[in-house]
Every structure is written in C-alpha cells, then in structure tokens.
Amino acid sequence: MSTDTPSGSPIQRFGARMSSVVERVMPSPFLFAILLSYVVFAGAVLVEGTSPFALVGYWYDGFWVLLDFAMQMVLILVTGYALAYHPLVRGGIEWLTSLPNDGKQAVVLVGVISMTVAWVHWGLGLIVGAVMAREMGRQAAKTNLQVHYPLLCLAGYMGMGLTWHWGLAGSAPLLMNTPGNVFVEQGIVEGLIPTSETVFHSYTLTLVVTGIVYTSVVLYLLAPERANAQPITEYVPESELFGAAGDGGDSPGASDADPTTVGEKINQSRVVGGVIAVTGVVFTGYTFATQGLSALNLDLVNFLFLFLGLALYTRPKAYQEQFYDAITSTGGIVLQFPLYAGIIGMMNSSGLSETMAETLVSLSTPATFPAVAWITAGVVNVFVPSGGGEWTVIGTTVLQAANELGVPAGQATVAYAVGDAHTNLLQPFWALPLLGITGMRARDMFGYGVTMMLLLIPFLALGLIFIPY
C-alpha cells in the first residue's frame, strides 16, 4: 500500500519513500524476534566466546522470566480496549476525533494525546493512543476527512517512542528512587536518586515539553496531502469498522435480551456486577489517597481498569462479551514475549549486554556523555526491549562512567531513558497492543516509525548536550 511516486514537500517524500522501503523489507514482529535471537546467539559466541550449548541453556532459562509481565500486558490491552469501547467513553473519544478539520490536525492531535498520557503512564498512553488512532481513522472514513492511517497509527505510538521513560511510570527513574535497589547495594550510588533529580528536574521537563512540540511539528509536516492519504479502509475491513462490533459498546444479542432463567438473570444483574465493581474502584482510590503517586504501578492500573470497566458495563455478561471481542488482539504478546525473554537471558548471562555498554560508554567525555548514554540505551534496547530489565544490566556501566566523568547520576539516568524510548520506533515489540487494536501490520506503520526515529536524532542530540542540568 505504498506510494510508488511520492509527491509533496521534501519531508513528505522522505516519509513516503521510507515507508515504501520498510513495507518491502521489514519482517513480521514474530520473525523479527526470531532473527534477533539468531543475531544475539551469534554475537555471544563470537564476542564473548560463550559455548553454544551454554547459550541454549541461558535462552531456555530466560524464556519464562516475562510470563507475569506478559499477562500484565494482556490485561492492560483487553481492559483498556473494553473500557474505551463503552458507549459513554466512545462518546468522549468521538467528540475529540471530531475536532480536527484536516488530516494534519488529526495526526497532531493523536500524537499529542499519546505523548501526554504516556508521560503519566506508559500503559495508558499505549492503549489511549491506539484507540484514538483507530477511532480517528474510523470517524475520518465516515466524514470523508482524508487522513493517512499509517502515520495516524505512528502518532498513537509516539508516547512509547519519546515520553514514557521520562514520566511518572518510567522504569529507570523509579528504580533509582526505590529503597534497596541494586545500584545502592553495589555502592555505585551513595543513596537514592529522588525523582526531583530525574522525572521532575527542569532538564527532563524541558526535554518533555520541547520534545512534544518538536514531534508535533514533524508529524504535521510528514502528513501527506489529501491525494496521497491512505484511509483506514485500506487496512481494516469496513465490516469491522461500521458493524455492531466496530461501533463498540454493548452489542445487541443475548446480553440485551430479557433474561428468562435464574442463571441468565444473575449473568445480567447490575447489582451483582456493580457491587464488586464499585468495591474495586473505591479500593484503588483509597490506595492513591493513602500512598500517593508512589502507588502507581502496572498492577494497580490493571486492577483499576478491570473494575472501572465493569462499573461502566455493570452487567457481568455484557462486560464478558466485550472482553471476548478484545482478546483476539493479544495473540502477538503471548507468542513473542517468551522469545524476547530468551534473548534477555542470552544477553545478560553471556555478558554481551555489558560489553556493548562498556564499549560505547568508553567513547564519551563529560560533555558528550549524555548523548553517548542515549545511544548506548538505544542500541541495547533493540535487543532487550525492557526498560527496567535493560537498566539493571547496563545501568552499572553507565552510572560508573558517569561517576568517573563527574556527570550527575540523575542526568545519566534521564539520558539512558531517552535512548530506551527512542529505538522503540524501530523495535516493534512494544507496538503489539497497538497493532492489535488498530488492525495494522508492523511493516505498514514502521516506515514512519523509522522516519521519526531519524528525524528525532538532531533534537535529542542537541537537547541532551546543551540543555543545562
């Protein structure tokens, strides 16, 4: 679905050509994970001299370490999907999607919402960005607004590509402020690094604000003209967009029929569903009231989403049906998480992660260290796409180098966080939930992901080095 003869401004042509190239050469996310497994295996043998038999053992040992996290991701996808497709929530989303007057404004709106919400929580940002992209595309198709759907989906993913690791749920900054973390225990840092030196530092907040503005301008400039825009209907069948299931909310059928048996009356009882739903929501509110933002984690978000959704649908059967509609989009997560966990096992146990980090960090000076830490994280993230797990592996090297060069640990952590998010625009691992919701293939969207990754390089390099800490 690429444009063979791209037209428009230079940046529009660049984005169209990159999209065309990536569409032809990028493998599916599952094959991407398989190929990375081979690359890491070969690298560990050649660079670290690790025995192939030992590597197979490391691969197997690591294979299961992300099972809890995989289930968390499945829940945040399904609960977020069910919540977003309730008629009340859909009304708010439809109002937002009615605001843009052209395709450029639509892309920018989705991008700003994705990046802003991801700063609050990456899981929320990922789901909100995905739902906004799909709904913007669907509404545009209904109103004949010409929007380029691949770029729209990329805009919905920009929270994971830029702001999430600078925000309230950023893995590395939160770990540095967690008592008993590995870096304190090893004596690499003298004490906890508070979020005032990472997430809420003026250095970081300046990067966040200017980054959102810069990215919004680039998204606006990348958006093709009307004649070159490819609508959602070229990627998602109209029957999925405008049928009962596509319209979301309570679908007609058994859940709307008058119950005739005792069991069916219980299934559709608003009292049965409502009491437990309110209990879950109230408990979440109590947790935040007593513990503050320190309580924010993926488990609590999933808990809130689960019962907030039930509170909206009220009837257990209606909520169950919406879950079943959403669950099919989680297959990629279930299939691919074990492979990436195996890659993490090989990288960590063989020492390949540490070697890569040490090599890159050795090239830095005090002035260039933030940029080198950004590049280091970006390279490692392609192979180990797990912010917290990656930081526990290469953070030791990064922080030791920062100490030797006189760079504050908070600044080093932020610079790492930038790189970890940046190459998510190349690595399709974290896009799996978004791909499931939007109905896109990775190769249809990631041409613009690679384009945005390249266009962010000047901004990030200059910002990391010249914004004062």
Structure description:
- Helices cover 72% and strands 0% of the residues.
- α4 packs antiparallel against α18, α6 runs parallel beside α8 and α19 runs antiparallel to α20.
- With 469 residues, it is mostly helical.
- About 2% of the residues have low confidence.
- Keywords: Membrane, Transmembrane, Transmembrane helix.
- This is TIGR00366 family protein.
Terminal CA distance: 45 Å
- Helix amount: over 70%
- What kind of sheet is the major sheet? none
Overall structural class, as computed from helix and strand content, comes to mainly alpha
Number of helical segments?
A: 24
Order of secondary-structure elements: HHHHHHHHHHHHHHHHHHHHHHHH
- The parts where pLDDT drops under 50 for at least 5 residues are 248-255
Return the average pLDDT rounded to an integer: 85
Strand content: under 5%
What is the number of strand segments? 0
- Using the alpha-carbon principal axes, give the shape: globular
Radius of gyration: 23 Å
Helices and strands, with pairings:
Elements: H1 10-25, H2 29-48, H3 52-62, H4 67-84, H5 87-97, H6 103-120, H7 122-143, H8 149-163, H9 171-176, H10 182-185, H11 202-222, H12 238-242, H13 244-247, H14 262-267, H15 270-291, H16 298-313, H17 316-327, H18 331-350, H19 352-361, H20 369-383, H21 387-405, H22 409-422, H23 432-438, H24 442-466
Helix pairs in contact: 1-24, 2-18, 3-18, 4-7, 4-16, 4-17, 4-18, 6-7, 6-8, 6-11, 7-8, 7-23, 8-11, 8-24, 11-24, 15-16, 19-20, 19-21, 20-21, 20-22, 20-24, 21-22
Keywords: Membrane, Transmembrane, Transmembrane helix
Protein name: TIGR00366 family protein
Transmembrane segments: 30-56, 63-86, 106-133, 145-166, 200-222, 271-289, 295-314, 326-347, 367-384, 445-467
